[in-house]
C-alpha cells in the first residue's frame, strides 16, 4: 500500500476494485483505513466502479 511504483498502485487498485464487487463492506473498511496514507492511484482505481456518493468517502482528509 505504501509502494510508490505506478504499476504496483494500479495493480493494487484493480485488485481492490474486484474484491469490492464480492466483499464491499470489508474492502471499504480497508480503504477507509488506508485512504490518507496510500497512493492516490490505488484509491482512484479501487473506487472507479463505485457510485459518486460512495466514492466521496474516500477523498483524502486534510
Using brief descriptors, characterize the structure shown:
single chain; 4 helices; 62 residues; 66% helix; mainly alpha
Explain this structure.
- It is a single chain.
- By secondary structure, this protein is mainly α.
- The protein has one domain (6-55).
- Helix content is 66%, strand content 0%.
- It contains four helices and no strands.
- The protein has helices at residues 6-22, 24-34, 40-47, 52-56.
- Helix 1 packs antiparallel against helix 2 (24-34) and helix 1 runs parallel beside helix 3 (40-47).
- The radius of gyration is 10 Å and the shape is globular.
- It starts with 5 loop residues before the first helix and ends in a 6-residue tail after the last helix.
- The model has no long low-confidence stretch (mean pLDDT 93).
Summarize this entry quickly.
The chain is built from 4 helices and no strands.
Please tell me what the overall shape is: globular
What structural category arises from helix and sheet content?
Answer: mainly alpha
Total strands = 0
Mean pLDDT level: 93
Strand residue percentage: under 5%
**Structurally, how many domains make up the residues?**
1
Report Rg.
10 Å
Low-confidence stretches: none
| N to C succession of SSEs | HHHH
| End-to-end C-alpha gap | 19 Å
Biggest beta-sheet profile = none
Helical coverage, percent range: 55-70%
Number of helices: 4
Amino acid at each position: 500500500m505504501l509502494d510508490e511504483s505506478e504499476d504496483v498502485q494500479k495493480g493494487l487498485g484493480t485488485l481492490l476494485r474486484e474484491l469490492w464487487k464480492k466483499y464491499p463492506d470489508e474492502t471499504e473498511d480497508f480503504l477507509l483505513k488506508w485512504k490518507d496514507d496510500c497512493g492516490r492511484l490505488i484509491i482512484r482505481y479501487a473506487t472507479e466502479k463505485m457510485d459518486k456518493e460512495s466514492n466521496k468517502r474516500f477523498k483524502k482528509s486534510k
